[in-house]
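UPF0178 protein KQI20_09755, Intestinibacter bartlettii. Tokens?
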Amino acid sequence: MRILIDADGCPVVKDSIEIAEKFNIESIIFCDTAHNFNQKNVEVVIVSKGVDAVDFAILNNIQKGDIVITQDYGLASLVLSKKSYAINQSGMVYTDENIDELLYSRYISKKMRNSGVRLKGPKKRDKSQNIIFKENLEKLILKII
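Tokens:
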């Protein structure tokens, strides 16, 4: 098991690495050339900018049983299909039971935006989300182990 981090716009990279180290799990950061990560003892995979470039790099490197940290429902769906695990930066674990509904809600939201409807964005992130993320990532790791 490894932890693969979709680091483009991810606010919990440092927390993810700390938990990986706590459980002695390898972690790998995936990002595009617009980001610069310099984490000790952590592999950083840098890909060129492009739509879904980081997602494809993760999918090309994933192994059965890995954990992927991402906020992208599409990537999470593909991760689940590869018999791996996915969790978002707020601590929600993606499962076969919730992914279809999440993808459908994304589809409906996109249709609404395309038709001119203005939707509210996500609430501003607060520290409690980091705590929930860390707790749920640890629970996921313990479940897998």
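Residues 127-144 form the longest helix (18 residues).
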